[in-house]
Each structure stands twice: as structure tokens, then as C-alpha cells.
Specification:
Layout lengths: L2 E2 L6 E2 L18 H10 L7 H9 L3 H10 L8 H18 L16 H19 L1 H19 L7 H28 L6 H23 L5 H33 L2
Antiparallel strand pairs: 1-2
Helix pairs in contact: 3-7, 3-8, 4-6, 4-7, 5-9, 6-7, 6-9, 7-8, 8-9
Length: 254
């Protein structure tokens, strides 16, 4: 039986395409795919990471959708991409002693409660910086949960949303690594705040760009507002988690 390759459209027979090497059968994006990704992806640091980087900054949403549909042979595995890049950026933050959230909250009160809150927030910032890769991985299913809910009519399952957001996170991590020299040189100056603001706006812009391309069968304005809603829900929930953690820390502190 003649098979059409999902990667290069070559007609072939057998288990692998004799033109590009892609398997004839591509697994559905589900929990088994994710487990295989985690098990084997880290053992294959090859040129796939460069191809994936190029795709993420030229046609990100289209490329991710094609990956989910089966065009995967050239790509670096999504969760492994996040682990590698988050680990790299976390080491950079640690080595150059940069706390990623410190100074992002301003408390005008000089009483005991205000001082204790800033101290707790800075401690949380240090912990997040020291465990950057773990925190980044933890955030993936959280954001995927909100995008899955907001875009539920698009008929992609939760694991497919997890893959989408893994690639999106990888794209943002690459962007943050590129900007890292600015964080280092301006880490103790007032200039850091506008740099962080620009980075945050760029992250939102990248998310919108990816989602509009990925959900290309939907109205662009609808996708735009649904993307913003996903971000608002996610950031609100994340803020509540951090605030709750600080509250518990202050209550249990001797």
C-alpha cells in the first residue's frame, strides 16, 4: 500500500519514508506521546533545536499545528526544549546572581508588615530563581488548562494544548536568553524596570502571534481576545498562588 508522508508528501511503501525518514505512522498527541517525549527527548540534542528555533521565529503557530498533525521529523521535542532552555536560563540567573522578581513589587509602607512582606516576596523571588526550570515546567499545564478551557471549541485536547504551550514557552525562553545581557548590565539600576516591561509586552505579543497562526481557522479578533483572556486568567491565578504562599510564609514565620 502506498503511503503519503505527512512531512514531505513523498509517496512510499514501508514503515519509514525513504525521502526524509519520517515514520509512516505518527502517534496521536496524548499522554503516551508526552511520556515518550520526556523519556527520550533529552538524549537527542541535535540540529532539531536549530530548526525548531527558526520555525518558532518565522512561522510559529503554523509550525506547531503541523507538528501536532504529524509533521515532526525535523523538530526538537517540545517538553525537552523547555527543560533545556529553562535549565540554561536558570543557570545564567544563578551564576550572575540575578533574582528575577526582586524589585517588581513596591510597598510604600515602612511599618513592620510592609517590611516583612517585601522580605517574604524577595525570598520567594530567590526561590523561584534557584528552581527556575522546575517552576517553568510547573507553569506549562497551568497555562494549558486555561487555553484548553478558553479555546475548547477548537477541538484540540489538553495534551495538544500542553504541546502548543511548550513550544510557546520555548520561544519565550529563547527570547529571554537573547535579552539576558541587558538584565545583567542593568540588574541594579532603574533601567531594569522598563526592560522588564518591554519583555513582558513582547511575551504577550509572541503569545498573540502564535495563537492567531495556530488557530488560523477562527476569526483573528476572536482569537486575540481569547488569548488575552487566557493570559488574564492564568496571571490572576498565578498571582493568587504566590500571594497565598507569601501569606502562609508570614503566618508560620517565627
Amino acid at each position: 500500500m502506498t503511503i503519503i508522508c505527512k512531512n514531505c508528501n513523498h509517496h512510499f511503501q514501508g514503515h519509514y519514508c525513504n525521502n526524509c525518514g519520517q515514520p509512516a505512522e505518527t502517534d496521536k498527541i496524548n499522554i503516551h506521546f508526552l511520556w515518550h517525549d520526556i523519556q527520550h527527548g533529552l538524549l537527542h540534542l541535535d540540529k532539531g533545536i536549530f530548526y525548531t528555533t527558526k520555525e518558532l521565529f518565522t512561522r510559529p503557530g503554523h509550525s506547531i499545528r503541523e507538528f501536532i498533525e504529524g509533521k515532526r521529523i525535523k523538530h526538537f521535542k517540545p517538553v525537552s526544549l523547555v527543560l533545556v532552555l529553562a535549565g540554561m536560563l536558570g543557570l545564567m540567573y544563578h551564576f550572575f546572581h540575578i533574582s528575577i522578581l526582586e524589585g517588581s513589587v513596591v510597598v510604600t509602607s515602612n511599618d513592620k508588615n510592609g517590611i516583612e512582606f517585601i522580605s517574604a516576596f524577595n525570598s520567594a523571588s530567590d526561590w523561584i530563581t534557584e528552581h527556575y526550570a522546575i517552576v517553568t515546567i510547573f507553569q506549562l499545564p497551568l497555562f494549558a488548562l486555561f487555553t484548553f478551557f478558553v479555546f475548547r471549541k477548537a477541538h484540540f485536547n489538553f495534551i495538544e494544548h500542553l504541546v502548543l504551550n511548550s513550544f510557546l514557552t520555548g520561544q519565550k525562553l529563547i527570547f529571554h536568553i537573547i535579552l539576558f545581557p541587558l538584565f545583567y548590565f542593568y540588574s541594579t539600576t532603574p533601567t531594569l524596570k522598563p526592560i522588564i516591561a518591554i519583555e513582558n509586552l513582547a511575551d504577550i505579543g509572541l503569545t498573540v502571534w502564535v495563537f492567531i497562526q495556530f488557530f488560523n481557522s477562527q476569526n483573528k479578533w476572536s482569537t486575540f481576545w481569547r488569548t488575552i483572556l487566557s493570559l488574564v486568567l492564568y496571571l490572576t491565578f498565578l498571582g493568587l498562588i504566590i500571594s497565598f504562599g507569601i501569606f502562609i510564609y508570614l503566618k508560620t514565620k517565627p
